[in-house]
Design a protein that fits this description.
Helix 4 packs across helix 6 and helix 10 crosses helix 11. The chain is 61% helix and 2% strand. The protein has one domain. It is mainly α and 335 residues long. The radius of gyration is 20 Å and the shape is globular. The protein has a two-stranded parallel ribbon with strand order 1-2.
Length: 335
């Protein structure tokens, strides 16, 4: 077997730490078919998302009013989220077979516009997979001691957190995450750093040269630091929060059946199938619904995992569970 391929498979499979907690195993044939890459589909989704962003900006400029602008901010914020989900597939080497093409696409076209380095995120994310919900999981550890990530909580507090995020004040947490990932840039070459920060300088210079720097602020920075932050909180809650009475890390992981509007504005690219991704991270995003159907057809999976209907249903669980019997230890959330 090719050494790189073997390393890739080891990186993509569920970690040895939690492998024994997976309630159902796919056959080699099932996993092979579900993990097959389609570069054409990856390309289509990347082009489609950028086309939707540019189209939304054009239509908003042409028919501008406050309501249209607010809808555009939410729509573009969701598209930024979609780009990051595609970057996440690149982090797992699920975009293209060619590693160089995969990584540079994840960086330049998907990650950098959202202030994230895919290479830095890969280190963080693989640790999250390997040490899920433990002190060695950087996502879990980052939220310890932060009462805004302790569940259950009352609906008033949850509403205030979402309003804070929507107002832009929650952007500080996104910037803190960016800063954490920036610290991992020390492991890359000087050429990579020059390319990355040169990219930002070139983008700002180009918009300034054409006198449209305000468009960058209005149609990119505002969605990035408002609606995208709301999405991150809601998705983070849905993935690993407010699940009581579960004994292991995988059982503290949730999948969500998203509505059509939630797919558009909150959870594009099948990101709602989260526990399926943790079980089999080699499966690209466009085959996660198929993986979900396969797993749900097996009673040992269906009876042992948390699947909630809609993201609104997840938030209701967080509020409803705030009335749990005293003595139940609240669960802690992480992204």
């Amino acid at each position: 077997m090719n050494i790189d391929l073997a390393k890739d498979r080891r990186a993509q499979r569920p970690s040895d730490d939690f492998d024994g907690n997976i309630p159902v195993k796919l056959t080699k044939e099932e996993l092979r078919d579900l993990s097959a890459l389609s570069p054409l589909r990856s390309t289509f989704h990347i082009v489609a998302e950028w086309t939707l962003i540019l189209t939304a900006i054009y239509l908003c400029q042409r028919h501008f009013n406050p309501v249209v602008y607010l809808l555009t901010v939410a729509f573009i914020g969701a598209r930024q989220h979609a780009l990051l989900i595609l970057m996440h597939d690149g982090v797992h080497y699920r975009l293209f077979r060619d590693r160089r093409l995969n990584d540079w696409t994840a960086e330049v076209i998907l990650g950098w516009p959202n202030l994230i380095s895919a290479r830095a995120y890969r280190r963080n994310h693989f640790a999250h997979h390997r040490y899920l919900n433990t002190v060695q999981d950087p996502d879990w550890a980052r939220r310890q001691g932060d009462m805004s990530w302790v569940f259950p909580m009352g609906w008033q507090r949850l509403a205030m957190l979402l309003i804070r995020d929507l107002s832009g004040l929650g952007a500080i947490f996104y910037l803190m995450l960016v800063r954490t990932l920036l610290s991992k840039d020390a492991g890359v070459s000087r050429g990579f750093l020059v390319a990355r920060y040169g990219f930002y300088a070139a983008v700002v210079a180009m918009f300034a040269w054409f006198g449209v720097l305000h468009l960058l602020l209005v149609y990119w920075i505002v969605p990035l630091f408002t609606w995208l932050i709301v999405i991150f909180r809601v998705r983070s809650i849905a993935e690993h929060s407010a699940i009581e009475g579960r004994a292991n890390a995988y059982a503290q992981t949730r999948s969500t059946r998203a509505s059509v509007l939630e797919h558009v504005f909150v959870a594009p690219k099948n990101v709602n199938y989260h526990i399926e991704h943790h079980f089999y991270p080699s499966v690209p995003f466009y085959r996660l619904p198929q993986l979900h159907r396969v797993l749900m057809s097996k009673s040992e999976f269906k009876d042992s995992v948390q699947v909630t209907r809609s993201y609104l249903g997840v938030l209701r669980e967080c509020v409803r569970n705030s009335h749990s019997i005293l003595g139940v230890r609240p669960s802690r959330a992480q992204a």
